[in-house]
Specification:
four-stranded antiparallel sheet; 5 helices; alpha/beta; 27% helix; 172 residues
């Protein structure tokens, strides 16, 4: 850790960004490293392009649950066929911090196809009309604490309802 650039407690978690000589800026949520400038692309590309390229037709509508750092969003928007991306992020602090300290990753937040909702992702999925999305990508923190429910059967059943036939779900 060269320097702590940001450290605060949101309504949901401890949020920190520090600079590292080896990895650049590093985002940490509740003491767990979420991403680094140096290697974030490896995770973001895999969790995004594998499901989107697995679809039988180019994706048009995509939902991201979590993903407040913006990396998955950036990668989704590389698909020119995408007309709308809904993002349900529970913690408003994460996108704001990412825009400031990870601007190359958070660039997608400014795209007009993006509909960012600061809300409970489970409720957002539950309220989605049946067959709304071509793909749902869950880019959450580890399955402990508030994110634990994102790894349980009832949430997967709700996601299945929100998918169009032939749609794809990808979770971290």
């Amino acid at each position: 850790v060269e320097e702590v650039l940001f450290h605060d407690k949101s309504e949901f978690q401890d949020v920190m960004v520090f600079s590292s000589q080896a990895y650049g800026n590093v985002l940490v949520l509740d003491g767990v490293i979420q991403c680094t400038e140096r290697d974030e692309f490896a995770y973001q590309e895999m969790i995004t392009h594998l499901p989107l390229c697995a679809l039988s037709e180019p994706p048009k509508t995509v939902l991201v649950v979590g993903g407040g750092d913006g990396g998955v969003l950036r990668e989704i928007l590389r698909h020119k066929s995408v007309t709308r991306v809904d993002m349900a992020e529970i913690d408003a602090m994460v996108p704001e911090v990412s825009k400031k300290f990870f601007p190359q990753m958070a660039i997608g937040f400014e795209d007009e196809r993006v509909n960012l909702k600061i809300c409970d992702g489970i409720k957002f999925v539950e309220d989605a009309a049946e067959g709304t999305y071509d793909a749902i990508i869950v880019d959450s923190s580890d399955p402990v604490g508030p994110a634990e429910v994102l790894f349980q059967k009832p949430f997967f059943e709700k996601m299945e309802k929100a998918l169009r036939p032939g749609g794809v779900i990808c979770t971290q």
